[in-house]
Amino acid sequence: MKRICLLLIALLINICVYAQEITFLFNRINKEIENTYAPDQRDKTYQVSMVEKGGKLILMGSTTEKAAIEALISQLANAGITAENRIELLPSERLKGKTYGIVCMSTASFNSEGGFSAESGTQALMGMPVRILEEQDDWYRCINMEGYTAWVITRSITAMTEAEYEEYLAKPKVFVNTKYSTLYTNSNTNSLPVSDLVWGNILIDEGRVGAWRKVSVTDGRTGYVPNSDVIGFNEWISKAHPTEKNIVETAKQFCGFPYVWGGTSIKGVDCSGLTKSVYFLNGYVLRRDASQQCKTGDSVDVHKFVEGTYTKAALSNLKPGDLLFFGRKAENGRKERVTHVAIYMGDGMIIHSSNIVRINSMIPGENDYYTGAKRLLKARRIIGTADEGKGVVSVKNSGLSK
């Protein structure tokens, strides 16, 4: 009896060791696949795990990358691991073709996970398009207009088929061109609000009614907005030009507004939310985060300032509207890390969202000196680079217009 017990214990130990080896192999291979096919989860989705059920190994999760599934199965097989594939290729078939969407709230918050307690990632404005990847517990995983993948509550999105989306694009629309407005039930300010509106919102145009504009939201709500608060969408596109002056003047409109993590609207912005919003209001769509924006547009030489010459002359290659990126330099085996972005205004001055949207000098000893100036890493020119394969897209080619 004692011998049998010892044999059973040895068998259990061997099984546990084998299971640990399988888990270790899977984790290593799975991480390699993720790093190869979806190294940045803001751009591509890959969330895969392996579980044991009824004596079988099963691959679970979801991804946007078909090639990643194929590579994972192949590499597991080469390692002697056979597992049933239940990985869902996104967009999910459970969406039944409703893989397009339009934001239907003045500002919709997108989180890192599908829950209100998850970290804020970004925002999208009313009228902006998204591609829906999957739905879980009243949350959509979406790719927004600037290519950022995150989760948003389903109530903030009107889901559509491709045909319905094309129909929406063909409808006349208006663009909110004032910081704040209100959509009212009737054409008077004493009626109940239907929704708040902010600068950059897009609504379906139902026609002018005296001093008011009747409009509708994609979720079916209709109402009236003062005609002075909106402009025809196509007219806005024709006028939206990111000149040096326009970028600086638009950025100034955010002065004194609060820093909000994940914010990309006049209600509040983080550092890259400010740059993204300012350029959007002038007709360009930028990537979401500073670490993404720093790889777009054209490089501008600021190496003298970066290397310690903290003078205006060292910034002479810059033009108003250029983006300056700050952070940690690559050293001692650590990679460069971009953590902040600002808009250059000229004459050594920047405007950025740092605790509050404010104007600072890059030059030591000057009033309002930015204490983080010496962390400058690089600069990029965005103006004039749209639709050239440099990570910057004009609104007219962004999927917002037909």
Give the secondary structure arrangement, pairings included:
Layout: H1 2-37, E1 46-53, E2 56-63, H2 66-78, E3 84-85, E4 88-89, E5 100-103, E6 107-111, E7 120-125, E8 129-136, E9 139-144, E10 149-153, E11 157-160, H3 162-170, E12 173-176, E13 180-184, E14 193-198, E15 202-209, E16 212-216, E17 222-226, E18 230-232, H4 233-239, H5 244-252, E19 264-265, E20 268-269, H6 271-280, E21 284-285, H7 290-293, E22 298-300, H8 303-306, E23 323-328, E24 337-346, E25 349-354, E26 356-361, E27 376-381, E28 393-394
Parallel strand pairs: 2-3, 2-4
Antiparallel strand pairs: 1-2, 5-8, 5-11, 6-7, 8-9, 9-10, 12-15, 12-18, 13-14, 15-16, 16-17, 19-20, 21-28, 22-27, 23-24, 23-27, 24-25, 25-26
Helix pairs in contact: 1-2
Q: Terminal Cα separation, in Å?
A: 80 Å
Query: Biggest β-sheet: count, sense, barrel?
Result: 6 strands, antiparallel
In terms of per-residue confidence, which ranges show pLDDT below 50 for 5 or more consecutive residues? 6-18
How large is the radius of gyration?
25 Å
Detailed description of the structure:
The protein is of the alpha+beta class. The chain contains eight helices and 28 strands. The strands form eight sheets. Strands 22-27-23-24-25-26 form a six-stranded antiparallel beta sheet. Helix 1 packs antiparallel against helix 2 (66-78). Mean pLDDT is 94; it is low at 6-18.
Could you write a compact summary of the structure shown?
The chain is an alpha+beta fold and 402 residues long. It contains 8 helices and 28 strands.
